[in-house]
Amino acid sequence: MNEKCYTGFISSGLRPLFHSKQSAIPSMETSNALSQAEDEIDLWGCLEVLARRKWLICGVLFAVFVSTVIFTLAMTPFYKATGKLEFTLQSPRVTKFEDMVVPQAQTREFMNTQTRLLASDSLAWRVIETLDLVRSPHFNTKYVADGETSEGLQAGLRDTTGGASGSGNDELDRRVRKAEVQQRLLKVFSESLEVKAERDTTILNLAFSSSDPAQAQEVVNTLIGSFIAWQLDKKVGAAGLANEQLHKQVEVARVRLEKSESELNAFAQKAGIVSLDSRMNLVYKELEEINAALAQIHAQRLSREALDAQAREVGVSALPMVIDNLLIQELRRQYVQLVSQYEEKLVVFKPDYPEARRLKARLDDVASKIDTEEGRILAGIRNDYLVALKNEESLRVQADLAKTRALDLNDRATQYKILEREVETNKDIHQSLLQRGKEIDATAGTDISNVQVVDHALLPVKSDRPRIIFNLLLAVGIGLLLGVAAAFVLEFLDNTVKSIDEITDRFGIGILGVLPEAEERFRGRLDRLVVSDPRSGFSEAIRTARVSIQLSTAAEGGTRTLLITSTAEGEGKSTIAVNMALAFAAAGDRVLLIDADLRRPRLHKVFEVDASEVGGLSELLIASKSLADVVRATGYENLFFMPAGSVPPNPAELLASERMRRNLDLLVADFDRIIIDGPPSVGFADVLVLSSLVSGVILVSTIGRTHRQALRMFRRSLLNINAPLLGTLVNRLDVHRRFGDYSKYYKDYYHPYACADGSPETVQGCIRKWLKHACGFLLSGRRPQGGSVPREKMPGAKQPKNRVHKTQ
Question: What pTM value is reported for the model?
Answer without folding.
Answer: 0.50
